[in-house]
Amino acid sequence: MSAAQDLHDLERIQLDSQWLYRQGDLVLGPLSGHQVVEKLYTGELTGKTEVSASGPSGFRKLEELDAFQLHVSKAAVKLKVEAEARAAHARRRSQRLMVGGVAALVLSGLGLGAWHISRYASVYLPGVDRELDIKVDPPVITVAKRSVPEELFEYPGEPKRPPVANKPPESKPLDTPTEKPGKPEKVASASPLPKPGRTPGGRPTGKVTTDADGLSTEVNYDMASINRVVKQYQSSLFRCFKEEAERRPGFSAKVPLEFTIGNDGHVAQLWVDHPQLKKGPLFDCLFGELKKWPFKPYPGERATVNLAFTIGKK
Fold it and tell me: Is residue 117 assigned to a domain?
């Protein structure tokens, strides 16, 4: 009984004593035994911390002192539990951040996809764009007559070009035949040009007179096929007009186009009958799209297609 009492008294004395402790090369303190215990539970001191109550020469580890051994064990368990709780909390936070990042990425992807779909729909699907109204006149197909863009149209406010007069053919002296008495001279009559024919489908064929001099040209393009291609692909030009409307707020105009289809089936030339749109981004966009239209190759005279677009706000 006296030994237990002595041990209890020793622990009480150690807790009431003043202690110095080491941190690296520094000696700090003094602290009471109760302050040492508090620092054990906060993690500032551990069982390996050396302390001394008798001066610099008597340092011992806290885990070796009877008064602090129980507190060293309890503090170690407490700090371990707290560390595990902090780690679990950090894992949960990391998981929440990851889930939030994935959700944000999915939402941004859906938003970007919706933007692309709406842009595609507004350009390529008729009736989707409620702001810009585009109407197309039926195409007119003729034989190509001119290849110089400036000769195609006359614009308001521009001086009219003087018409080029057709130069009459030079007259050549005729050899006067020697007339024999009693025999009248025979006069050769010019044979008429053959009239052009048409196939049941409406495609012009054969020889067709195309100019005032009576020169005949051969037309072999299929008007029905050209009309089908124009009807199928004319909406691909809407994107060009919508982009022009973005560049020109309030853009509204009637824009007649005239393009020539080469014998290889590709659009070879384009003219825009509008004084402000003869050249520029709209012209380049229209020409680029028209070159993609798959017309059938054909021999003979080339075909010209006149197509007019009316652009305005709904």
Answer: no
Please check whether residues 136 and 273 belong to one and the same domain: yes
> What backbone phi and psi angles, to 5 degrees, belong to 300?
85, -160
Q: Average model confidence (pLDDT) for the chain?
A: 76
210 and 67 fall within a common domain: no
Q: What is the CATH number of the domain that holds 12?
A: 3.30.1490
For the chain, the residue count is 314
- Among 196, 211, 226, which Cα is nearest to 294's? 226
In a domain, 255, yes or no: yes
Are the CB atoms for 246 and 132 separated by under 8 Å? Answer: no
Cβ atoms < 10 Å from Cβ of 145? 13
In whole angstroms, how far apart are CA 247 and each of 135, 243, 251, 281, 284?
20, 6, 8, 10, 14
The C-alpha angle 29, 35, 37, rounded to 5 degrees, equals 120
Q: What residues does 28 pair with on adjacent strands? A: 21
Catalogue the E-assigned strands of the chain.
18-23, 26-32, 50-52, 60-61, 132-136, 140-143, 197-198, 204-205, 207-209, 216-218, 253-261, 267-272, 303-313
Overall number of domains in the chain: 2
In this predicted structure, the answer to whether residue 8 has a pLDDT above a threshold of 80 is: no
**Cα–Cα distance between 52 and 37 in angstroms, integer?**
14
DSSP string covering 218-263: EB---HHHHHHHHHHHGGGGHHHHHHHHHHSTT--EEEEEEEEE-T
**309 and 255 Cβ atoms separated by less than 8 Å:** yes
* Within-domain flag for 291: yes
The model's pLDDT over 21-69, given as tens digits with 9 standing for 90+, comes to: 888 888 887 888 889 899 999 999 998 898 888 766 688 888 888 888 8
Q: Rounded distance, CA 34 to CA 119, Å? A: 74
Both 134 and 263 in one domain: the answer is yes
CA distance 189 to 191: 6
pTM of the model: 0.41
